[in-house]
Amino acid sequence: MIKAIKGTKDLLPSDAPRWHYLESIVKNIFSNFNYKEIRTPVFEVTSLFARSIGEETDIVGKEMYTFEDKSGTNVTLKPEMTAGVVRAFIEHSLGAQQSLNKLFYISPMFRQERPQAGRLRQFHQFGGEAIGSASPLLDGELIQIAYDILKALGLKDLTVKINSLGIPETRESYKNLLREFLKDKKDKLSEDSRKRFDKNILRIFDSKIESDQKLLEGAPTLIQNLDEESKRDFELVKEYLTKVNIPFEVDPKLVRGLDYYTKTTFEIISGSVGAQSALLGGGRYDLLVEKLGGKSTPAVGFAAGMERILLACENERSFPIRENCIDIYIIRLDNNLESEVSDLASKLRRHNLKVEFDYLQRSVKAQMREANRMKAKITLFVGGDEYSEQKINVKDMYSSVEQIIKIKSEENDKIIIKDIRKFLSQVRQQCGWMTTKGKHCKKYAQPGSKYCHWH
Ligand code: AMP
Asked: What's the number of domains the chain is made of?
């Protein structure tokens, strides 16, 4: 049997409601802040990622899905979105059309990492990019969007961490300070950190190895050595977060893995997903547009891992999911009425009703079972004496109250639809939201209301 590749995951129909809910919140909150959606191709030329993310990073060094296509072009499946967004921004001169572009995306990403809980090889991110302004208001705005999305999903155990990496000049002089501090300890660092000492010393802070972290104790921090401009901007970001009631911690070790960050960096961590606890991360990248061949343009953005966020939601039981239910199940009482049933279903579906019927020649009893399983609000019975008198029986599945509806009168279909809609508006339906114990609520909502009074 052929199986899915390690580190990839099928999203099955039972997973879809959670994904739809998450996506609807993402789209809604970004749209409140007037961000517009951008979609870029799944693959790009490899040099785009190498140039923007940085040759020395784990992503470019170890994790990219890179291959030569049949024409000999070296291409890579996108490991992150910012590079592609900036490429599109430059290629389509978006900056000439409006000076500030506020963009958001939802997309699969690909990284050849060791699969484990919270780490996949194909995963999904949503994120936002504001390209065209150096205002720290936008740094604050993006942190607020990220935080508000997680809060709207009902997540509680969250920590917002922020830091500033300053402008490149400050960072360079700080790197010398750090090099000086670690010089005598270099031999004791892990092999990875020793490599970073030479190539990208800041990233030693990213090391997960305890002995490395011990050696870093007492090291000078970037945040204590910031230039005036970065210091002022960082104060403004903090002020913004305080005003919108977002609790945060300043974490001087937050350097983030990618090369292109300047000034503000941030992460939101969850206490409910285990070791891979960062739900999202981002920061300012004022130099990237120019580095990729565009006009110098300041920008800021973040990317959030959707699988990890949904895992946190599941662990915290943070949002309820409704069981899928349908409006109408049509039961065929006589086997020879298949096409009449299908006709009626088509009409009702065109009137925006969720309708199902039997395609498998099942008995009336089995059709009733299906109607119950699908949580139909009402059933229509097509056949028998009533049908020969051009009527059908309509049944409320909660109260078992029945009513006869005329179907082939002089009037047109609109009357039938109106009668069925009226009947539907009077029925109760099972609430279906998750209870705190993780079970589907079996209580019934009042007619006209979607949920029981608990939900
Ligand atoms: P990054 O682009 O590395 O800053 O990652 C941003 C977010 O994407 C992380 O905080 C994770 O939530 C998510 N993420 C990154 N890599 C993976 C992966 N391999 N599998 C699942 N989620 C990931």
From this structure: 2
Give the three-state DSSP class for 282. Answer: strand
The answer to whether residue 91 is domain-embedded is: yes
What is the rounded distance in angstroms from the CA atom of residue 434 to the CA atom of residue 261?
41
More confident site: 324 or 234: 234
User: How far are the Cα atoms of 17, 328, 375 from residue 442, in angstroms, in the given order?
Assistant: 18, 19, 11
Give the position of tokens 């991360």.
Answer: 281
Region 390-405 average pLDDT: 91
CB proximity list for 126: less than 8 A, separation 6 or greater: 23, 26, 104, 105, 106, 107, 149, 303, 304, 306
Cβ-contact 302, 142 below 8 angstroms: yes
pLDDT at 448 over 90: no
Pocket test for ligand 1, best of 159, 276, 302, 310 (most atoms within 8 A of CB): 276
**pLDDT at residue 451 is higher than 80:** no
Tokens 């936008």 identify what position?
138
Give the end of a domain, one of 316, 351, 386.
316
User: Could you tell me which residues come within 8 angstroms of residue 65 by beta carbon, excluding any fewer than 6 positions away?
Assistant: 76, 77, 79, 110, 111, 112
Residue 160 buriedness (CB in 10 A; 0-12 / 13-18 / 19+): buried
DSSP summary character for residue 119: B
284 lines ligand 1 (CB under 6 A): no
What are 73-89's pLDDT values in tens digits? Answer: 999 999 999 999 999 99
Instruction: Compute and round to an integer the Cα radius of gyration of the chain.
Output: 29
CB 134 within 8 A of CB 286: yes
* 346 inside domain: yes
Phi, psi angles (nearest 5°) of residue 160: -95, 125
Q: Is the pLDDT of residue 203 over 90?
A: no
Query: 103: domain range?
Result: 16-167+227-316
Answer yes or no: are the C-beta atoms of 284 and 262 closer than 8 Å. Answer: yes
Residue type, 353: L
What's the CA angle centered on 337, arms 335 and 343, to 5 degrees? Answer: 140
The residue whose CA is least distant from atom 18 of ligand 1 is 119
How far, in Å, is the centroid of ligand 1 from the Cα of 318?
Answer: 21
Residue 67 β-bridge partners = 75
Q: Are residues 367 and 274 in the same domain?
A: no
